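To: structure subgroup
Subject: Chain for Friday's discussion

All,

I'm putting the inputs and outputs inline so they're searchable in the archive.
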Amino acid sequence: MTLRLGDTAPDFSVETTAGKITFHDWLGDSWAFFFSHPADFTPVCTTEMGRTAQLADEFARRNVKPLGLSTDTVAEHRKWILDVNDTQHTSLEFPIVADDDHAVAQLYDMIHPGESATAAVRSVFIIDPNKKIRLTMTYPMNVGRNFDEILRVIDALQLGDAKKIATPADWRPGGEVIIPPSISNDAAQDIFPQGWNEIRPYLRLTKV
């Protein structure tokens, strides 16, 4: 199943380290950072699980719920969490999906046969409170994710929704943003009373 931006994220009911959840109900009015791993007790995955736990306050501040997935059982996940906490000096509290039958991984196209027929690649789905997929990223098994980038794109998506803007290359919170071409200058005067710098008619920069 190929999932595209703007699609409704498929719902599922599954056992996790926090008990059984139904994804859409569990998400509620929050955003989701849904991310997959090849297997428990693997080195890159351990650092990523730890980093997500270390950033718990940053995700919470953005109204984002992390949800991990690995193609192992709840029992194995719980043993692994002890290793994550010990080696990464953190306390992992977000749920990890038990997907030993690969049902959720197949639903979200996380198994890429060119990498492995049985293990999930490092997929990332950012899903909004309307259950729409807003961003996808896929990393190979041997490359850890960039969590600065994950937080940056969440900030960009949320700011874009709130302020009707787009963000330029390498944007960081507090930087200039772009007024989309779909907004005329007349309309922009009401939306952006602070004004803007028109570099080209299609490229207008402002601060929000």
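Points worth raising on Friday:
Residues 147-163 form the longest helix (17 residues).
The mean pLDDT is 94.

D.
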